[in-house]
Write a structure and sequence with these properties.
The protein is α/β, with parallel strands linked by helices and about 500 residues long. The protein has 18 helices and twelve strands.
Amino acid sequence: MNPLERRLSGILLHPTSLPGPHGCGDFGPAAFHFIDWLAAAGQSLWQVLPLGGIGPGDSPYMSPSAFGGNPLLVSLERLADEGWLSADEVRPVEGLRADRVDYAAVHAFRMDRLARAARRFAADADPAARSARAAFERAAAHWLDDYALFMAAHDSLGGPWCDWPAALARRERTALAELRDTQAQRVDFWRFVQWCFHRQWQAVREHAHRSGIAVMGDVPIFIAHHSAEVWSRPELFELDAQGRQTVVAGVPPDAFSETGQRWGNPLYRWSAHADEGYDWWTRRLRHALEQADAVRIDHFRGFAAHWEVPAASPTALQGRWQPGPGIALFDALQAALAPAGASLPLLAEDLGVITPDVEALRHQARLPGMRILQFAFGGDASNPYLPHRHTADSVVYTGTHDNDTNSGWWAQARAAERQHLLRYLGCSADDAPAALLRAALASVARTAILPMQDVLGLGSDARMNFPGEASGWWRWRLQWESVQPVHAQGLREMTALYGRLGP
């Protein structure tokens, strides 16, 4: 069942933000404990950010693969339970912070332990484990082979892939065979890591389902140029004959940036996708829906039209709008992924410069859109983010991973926004951040999502990301001592009060 079709609420928290002993959250015991907390708080949905590997700036929206999972999310504790790491090897080392992710330190520690586990598996795994891994590799063959080869080549040569030896960049058969031979151990390592990621995340999801919790994933519209899929399918992207970018993705100037945002991702050659019946996108969304019960599609407006920036331009100011695939893509996804008459379990991130054609496309595709309460109090009663303008086919948030926390936003809000909120919600200034939580849960929108930071009343130091700033974000981590019984109790009471308590 599509969880976005019934009235419910949930929490936004990325797994890297979970507590744990090894420098960042993962799929270990804390993930199971968090699900138990969600159930106790009366929540029915856990929304995560993209689960793929991180890219420049530690962003999960710049992954080296559209299919591969983030190795840093593999629980070392669970690998020790399997006997592939020793107790000494999973003792946390000094310098791994509990309150922030230090990605450089975490990467060095975890990748060393994953390599040890891979060697031990190769030497000592029992037949059942080997059989389970082989079954995964057969099911994932359509992406896993290219992913493992790409990652092994990256380990040896760095990036970008278009600077690799020409034969390898062009994926000539002899060059790929040589890579498999000379980097066999590393190729096997990356296949092992993805199997561990898959089986651990499936165990987390199964626990969520037993607890009455659905999971909502996140699919970035764009992927990184230095990625397995762009290397393996360059004809699907706007590249020159050498595999280099001539244009890149971004957005025009907006509230976050006066010069726009030059994301730098390659743009799709939509005509090539259409020629193959959008098969690549179908496989990508099928994979995402095997990992989650519903999926948020980032930057939905890019499917109507996207902002094309010359690759040589340092900002997004010189960009122009170019048409996207429109409804043809979603018709293909509907035919391949949804039973007859059923809606796709997708959420359209329809924020930013939204024009009538974007709204028309969302309605044609029968997808809910997003309403952000922190955007509601600039302007007048016609502001579409105000609760009285919400519709049932929408998902309401206090803020997203790109916004400040409620408390941080309130502390810096303009005087006019403050007065509007106080009058509209009929609350005191001290109660304003909490009043936004109540307004989200009271909304007629079928789904309400609350960032965990807002439930805990945390300030700007708990902010997850700041769009347009290339480094220093994605680091916040939850501390269990911040979570008091009153948080679950109060949230459960409000969830019941506003008719969002699950069956």
